[in-house]
Design goal:
With 286 residues, the protein is an alpha/beta fold. It contains 8 helices and 14 strands. The chain folds into 2 domains: 127 residues, 3-Layer(aba) Sandwich (D-Maltodextrin-Binding Protein, domain 2), CATH 3.40.190.10; 104 residues, Periplasmic binding protein-like II (D-Maltodextrin-Binding Protein, domain 2, 3-Layer(aba) Sandwich), CATH 3.40.190.10. One of its GO terms (cellular component) is membrane.
């Protein structure tokens, strides 16, 4: 091969190699761009849709694409997350998450803290707890954690006493005294608001009551005295979750700091019925 041919051959190989490098770079850029276009998927319950949608709209202005997926029950969001179908969920507090992990061996963990709300006792038939008759029908959640929370509130109202007064996982079998012989109706947590029409008294969440339009959340006969982050709603992810480009962290920052989201939370819960739990000391695992 002549010197000229050898030079041409070398140049041709160099150009081919340069072209392959360009193709590889283009493929990487395309894949990264494609990945960035995939929305951050967060499962929620309908009662949190309003404030989260405001956060989604604010995030979009900053170039962050977030998709909310609503589930009407309190089991599917953890199943979907554990299976890797979504990136995060936002519907449960720490005690509920702990119980779900214990019962189903989910590989999940908290990522960040959201809002916390008070809960209350509500009635459409009576104006005070003193009016409540013997054998009144009382609606409470049927899941172990939120049932315990309801029983603690009934104990705060001095309607019952518990065998372990401070146990947030108490159940109906652990009621020590029930002087009014209350009759308990167990329903799924999201349905407590709708069951209010058929009962004398119901344990209620402000956001579900507002969503169901069955009662004004501000008209509780008694609100709990909880002021801790224990029952704050959490952003939850899988144990192996990698926050690509800090997208979830950015979304949480928007949720926690946006004035528009605060206004939505005031409307969703009631301005005096929620508080920013992320400003409180971190709650220890229980």
């Amino acid at each position: 091969m002549s010197k000229t041919q050898n030079t041409q051959h070398t140049r041709r190989n160099w150009l081919i190699g340069l072209g392959l490098v360009a193709l590889v770079i283009a493929a990487v850029v395309w894949n990264n761009s494609r990945g960035q276009q995939q929305p951050l998927k967060i499962a929620i319950s309908p009662s949190f849709a309003s404030s989260l949608q405001v956060a989604v709209n604010e995030a979009k202005k900053q170039g962050l694409n977030v998709e909310l997926i609503e589930f009407s029950d309190w089991n599917t969001p953890n199943i979907a997350l554990n299976n890797g179908d979504i990136d995060a969920n936002f519907f449960q507090h720490q005690p509920f998450l702990n119980n779900a992990i214990q019962k189903s061996d989910y590989k999940l963990k908290p990522f960040a803290v959201g809002a916390a709300s008070h809960v209350g006792l509500y009635s459409k038939k009576y104006k005070s707890l003193a009016e409540l008759p013997t054998q009144a029908r009382v609606v409470i959640p049927n899941d172990p954690v939120n049932q315990g929370r309801a029983l603690l509130l009934l104990q705060q109202a001095q309607l019952i006493t518990l065998q372990q007064p401070g146990n947030h996982l108490s159940n109906l079998q652990q009621i020590a005294s029930n002087p009014k012989q209350l009759k308990f109706i167990e329903v799924e947590g999201p349905q407590t608001a709708r069951a209010l029409d058929d009962a004398d008294l119901a344990f209620g969440y402000p956001h579900y009551l507002r969503l169901a339009k069955t009662a004004d959340p501000n008209d509780a006969l008694l609100l709990d005295d909880n002021k801790s982050a224990l029952y704050a709603i959490l952003f939850v992810v899988r144990d192996d979750y990698v926050d690509q480009d800090d997208r979830l962290a950015k979304f949480v920052e928007i949720y926690q700091n946006s004035p528009e989201v605060k206004t939505a939370l005031d409307q969703e819960f009631g301005a005096k019925l929620w508080f920013p739990a992320w400003k409180l000391p971190a709650q220890k695992a229980i």
